[in-house]
Give the backbone structure.
Amino acid sequence: MPEFSRSDLQAAFEDYARRVDDAARGARESVVEWRYADDAWPYGLHPLFAEAEMWSGKWKPRKFKWGAKESLEYWYALGTDADGRVQAVEAHNGSVMSFVRTGDVIDELFHSESKLYGLRRAVLTDGVVAAIYDYRDERDGEFSVDRFEYADGRCVRSIAQSEYVSDGAWKTSPRQTICDFEHDDQGLLRAYRDTGSGLGGRELVFQRPAGKSKAKKIERRPLVAYVVDADSSDEGPEYSVYCDVYGLEMTYDDDWPLDVVPFIPTEHVSIIFDSTNVTNDGTVYAGVVPGAGKVEFKAVAETGAVWVLLDAADSETKERIGTAWTAGLGICVIVDSAEQLLQAIGDAEPPAADRLAVALRTPRPVAASGARTQIKKVRDSLAAIGCAASRMVIAGSSLKSELEDYLAKADVDGVFLQEGGFAAAVEAGEEISLRRSAG
């Protein structure tokens, strides 16, 4: 992980200050969508930003209310790019944050129209924020480093050290600020902050309201989804599809407590109904992979297909989601992040939570513990759009060890298999069934 000194941040600040307009313009030009939050700053680099407001002595649960800009008196605009990454945040009072991304380093510039006030630099390791460096030019200079520790993919501790200017010289604070974070299966439960015995010692600064800890656990039926390879046989795509779905029919146990969705090219989906009875028992559901161009989703639904596979990275997905839902189909959308999920759905309203499934594509290879932060962000985003009961699976290979890791350590409902066909689906189904039986 790269390390940065105060001098490094100061030099970067001075460089950005000379070209803040260009940096802000570059960030803004990459924005493809703006969303508006009511009276709440909607994005931050701290690992627990989405769960707690940390501005005061006692922290509060963070709440977001989204709406149309014209309906909000105190609005904050969140700008995301084509990959769902936040590039800019603008506020009703003229404050702006612009983001500059270079590999595993994210620079957050806090500025007005032409003046830079602060630079915050986040360093990522395995997809999570490992450290945040903060340099401010206010009051003759402030600098701090906040380092984060993780357990099972959750941030459990932060250790902050600061420097400040006094009598014209930089001095290091004699105290560290240590925050300890406790979690349960719903997220951040409580937080303690210790600034040293001279300033009160260790104190409780956050406690999730008791009522929220008693929320009823949502039961979601496990899901195994996979793409049928239509090019697996020299005898043509129809025969390839037939061999796969027939193999699924012969080896899949319909008593397993889960759903299976084979995704088939739209033009060949009729094979699963005409040549097999695999969908008759109510546990296997046909899905389609639409091709390029216009798709008649009503006609797709009339074939008997139930699900449509879409990739949030494709430019056509945002429009297709709404029309597929209108046609009565369920959507399985592949995403790289929670932000990309919200961007893909846009203003479309899911008709029901069971008509949306999310396949989270994570950098490979990655252990389940390292992906827990991303998984929780997706869960929170689903809850924000009224789809807490929607299923989320991990988009991965057919490696059984990888699947076992996620099922054991992460809050996922199954897997979306990118290779291996029906054999991999059966292997995954068997593993999930055994785990369910074992409790």
In short: The first strand starts at residue 33 and ends at 38. The mean pLDDT is 85. The longest helix spans residues 421-438. The CA atoms of residues 161 and 176 lie 5 Å apart.
